[in-house]
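Notebook entry, structure prediction.
Reason for the run: the old model in the group folder had no record of what sequence produced it. Starting over properly, with the input documented here first.
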Amino acid sequence: MDPKQIPKQMFDFNKMAFQRSFSAMLIMQDQAEKMIGMWMDQNKWFPEEGKKAMEEWVKTYKKGRDDFKSKVNKGYEKMEEYLEPK
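New structure, fully documented this time:
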């Protein structure tokens, strides 16, 4: 094994682990959103203002997670440039 490749392999492992963990989190959040939406639709007593607040909250957390993912991806791109053999 080439010692120069160890940092690249560690980086690739970290990147893959993050991507898979992030994907799992997305699946869980999307499923929770669907369940809450179904619950609100089935419970007619739930106030309309509450539904609007939940929709706004969902938009906010989706924007936050997309912004976070974008920043992490930019960091990974910079690190890949740094680790490229020259």
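Summary: The helical segments are 6-42, 48-83.
The old model has been moved to the deprecated folder.
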